[in-house]
């Protein structure tokens, strides 16, 4: 069964709702330009409130190394998600497992692209939209994802309750990642949408 990450959490109550609904991971966005950005203080409060066994992922977009280290000193992140142009050598500097986001464009060879991050725990595929680093709420052509792949797929990009089952059936990801598809407004999650999404993922 695909694991589930609920990303773009900004409030303690949304983190608790995601955990209660059965999410395996939550994502905290440390990218000031995002409407879902959290401060170190907000992030600390969210992590402290979480029950055990929920993985906390910190998302960065071409952040300076010092900024990432400043977050890591204060917030116990389990996993890093790099959503910019960071090379593998940079992603490996933080003594944490990491996901590398790859924004998929028509014609991409995804096995070749994924090979650029040999140190990644997983490759998170997201939709490409010029000028927008992520969280677009848009899907991409899932048929581009090779069924034979020597890397771990985390599928993202425009997922929601009414398309996630088809996405899983087509691509057999290790995990799915959703942000906008379970929101009431940017940065504010909708508990009913979280529950519906997780229900669809866990449905056999
Ligand atoms: O959510 C954001 O604002 C964001 C900003 C910069 C980079 C990534 C961002 N979000 C991530 O994008 C994917 C897909 O999101 P969606 O489900 O299509 O809304 C996911 O990992 C988000 O956390």
TrEMBL record:
<keyword id="KW-0822">Tryptophan biosynthesis</keyword>
<dbReference type="GO" id="GO:0000162">
    <property type="term" value="P:L-tryptophan biosynthetic process"/>
</dbReference>
<comment type="similarity">
    <text>Belongs to the TrpF family.</text>
</comment>
<keyword id="KW-0028">Amino-acid biosynthesis</keyword>
<keyword id="KW-0057">Aromatic amino acid biosynthesis</keyword>
<feature type="domain" description="N-(5'phosphoribosyl) anthranilate isomerase (PRAI)">
    <location>
        <begin position="4"/>
        <end position="199"/>
    </location>
</feature>
<dbReference type="InterPro" id="IPR011060">
    <property type="entry name" value="RibuloseP-bd_barrel"/>
</dbReference>
<dbReference type="GO" id="GO:0004640">
    <property type="term" value="F:phosphoribosylanthranilate isomerase activity"/>
</dbReference>
<keyword id="KW-0413">Isomerase</keyword>
<dbReference type="Pfam" id="PF00697">
    <property type="entry name" value="PRAI"/>
</dbReference>
<dbReference type="InterPro" id="IPR044643">
    <property type="entry name" value="TrpF_fam"/>
</dbReference>
<dbReference type="InterPro" id="IPR001240">
    <property type="entry name" value="PRAI_dom"/>
</dbReference>
<comment type="pathway">
    <text>Amino-acid biosynthesis; L-tryptophan biosynthesis; L-tryptophan from chorismate: step 3/5.</text>
</comment>
<protein>
    <recommendedName>
        <fullName>N-(5'-phosphoribosyl)anthranilate isomerase</fullName>
        <ecNumber>5.3.1.24</ecNumber>
    </recommendedName>
</protein>
<dbReference type="InterPro" id="IPR013785">
    <property type="entry name" value="Aldolase_TIM"/>
</dbReference>
């Amino acid at each position: 069964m695909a694991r589930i990450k609920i990303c773009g959490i900004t409030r303690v109550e949304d983190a608790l709702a995601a955990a209660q609904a059965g999410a395996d991971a939550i994502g905290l966005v440390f990218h000031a330009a995002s409407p879902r950005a959290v401060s170190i203080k907000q992030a600390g409060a969210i992590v402290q409130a979480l029950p055990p066994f929920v993985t906390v992922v910190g998302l960065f977009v071409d952040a300076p190394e010092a900024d990432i280290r400043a977050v890591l000193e204060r917030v116990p992140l389990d996993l890093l998600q790099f959503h910019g142009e960071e090379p593998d050598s940079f992603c490996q500097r933080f003594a944490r497992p990491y996901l590398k986001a790859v924004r998929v464009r028509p014609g991409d060879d995804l096995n070749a692209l994924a090979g650029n991050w040999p140190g990644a725990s997983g490759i998170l595929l997201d939709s490409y939209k010029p000028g927008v680093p992520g969280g677009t709420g848009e899907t991409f052509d899932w048929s581009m994802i090779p069924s034979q792949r020597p890397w771990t797929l985390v599928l993202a990009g425009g997922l929601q309750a009414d398309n996630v089952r088809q996405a899983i059936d087509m691509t057999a990801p290790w995990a799915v990642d959703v942000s906008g598809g379970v929101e009431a407004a940017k940065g504010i999650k909708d508990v009913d949408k979280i529950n519906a999404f997780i229900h669809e993922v866990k449905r056999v």
